[in-house]
Structures are given as C-alpha cells and as structure tokens.
Amino acid sequence: VQRFVKPGNTVLIKPNIAFANPEAWASATSPGLVRAMAELVLEAGAKRVIVADHTNHESAKCFQRTGIGAALEGLESVKLIGLDQESMFMEATVPYGKALNTVKIAKLIERSDVLINMPCAKSHAGTDVSFGLKNLMGLVWDRAYFHDSTDLHAAIAELATVIRPDLTVLDATRALVTNGPTGPGKVENLGILIAGTEPLAVDIYAAGLTTWNNRSLAPGSISHLAHASQLGLGPLDVSKLNIVIEG
User: CA 184 to CA 121: how far, in whole Å?
Assistant: First the structure.
C-alpha cells in the first residue's frame, strides 16, 4: 500500500455496498477486507480515509446490513459516506465518448489523492459480471441513464476512461455466482484476492475464476470488457498479462 499512499494523503476507498443485504449473500465487498484496507492505508500515513458508495438501497441500511458500518467503527480518521445527494457530484467530460458525452461523478474523486477500488466478484443479470469496471458506477449520480438511455456496456467502458483508480483490489474471497447482482444466489468460497493497477486486467483475470450464472465466460464475450479493450484500456488476452500468484 505504501507504493500508492503517502503520508498526509486523503484516500478514497470505493467498495460495493449497493444493496442492503446480509454479508452471507456476497452481494457486497467483505466488511473485514474493507476494514483491513482502511487500516493499511492509515498505517501508510494517510491523513484521512473516506469509504463511499452511491448505494441502490438507502445508504444507512446498506451500511448496517452488509456489516461494513460496524466493521469501520473505532477507526479514527475514517469516514463512511453515502453519496446520496446530487450536490455531491460534478460534471465531467468523457473524451471521445459515444455512449456518454458527460457524466456526473463524485466530487470526492477530485478531492482525494488516491482512489482504491474494492469491488466484489458477482454475476450480473445485465452485464454478465460485476467486477471493478462495473463497480465504478457507484461513483456516478445518474445510474438510471446508463441502464435506460444509452448503451450500458459502452457507457461502463467509457466511464473507465474518466475514473481511473490507482489500485483495484477485487474481493473474490467468496463470489455470488448466480442471481447477481442482488442475490440471494449461489455463493462460492474462492478464497482469492486480485489486486492490480490496470482495472481491465483485474476484471479479465476474474472472469476465468469460475462460471457466472452457470456459464463459462471468455473476457471478449463480456461486452463492457470488450468495449474497454477497444478504448485502449488493455488486452483481453489473459496470457498477455503480468500475473504474480502468491499464497
């Protein structure tokens, strides 16, 4: 973490806390992992740590039922924020965007020195999977526009050209492999964390961990990942990645 966080930094951690579901459903990032990351960031000298998400359900209920609120209790200089108000977002231009020309993203991104994306690994009815790139939609004000008014897959990819995490840590300790993104569904205990500086690389590696909604998915068959590669965010071929396996 010291590679990314320097003394005095403000660090924004973005887990997936979208739904007010129990931890066992695996529809949110593990509370223990979120706390562990906050502790590591503080040990690296961060002055302030913000954990934030624009939740689908009421934010207070999401924080309580996922266990993330309780997990962060007692950590000084750590604040858990629900991005519930439009005033918390700012307009950003999407260079060369086709599905998006502009998008309202959280002001906290600009006010932070480091952005750590902490998605969970789950299936998704609309996008096949929900990993790191999809998790960035929790930093957007108008998610409905993505789903209802444009090409969702292209929009997710284009968003990834605007919001660029310094580090992505994907929680695949357990994965919601069916009936995502909300669950309940089948949960597999994979016991894996995937960390990387290239968000697309993390996602394409995760795609091969297991089946998603009972299907094996090649990265190129996942539309938002294919769009991201076409935008120059990286290759779709896992063999072209620099992968280090530990543990």
Answer: 14
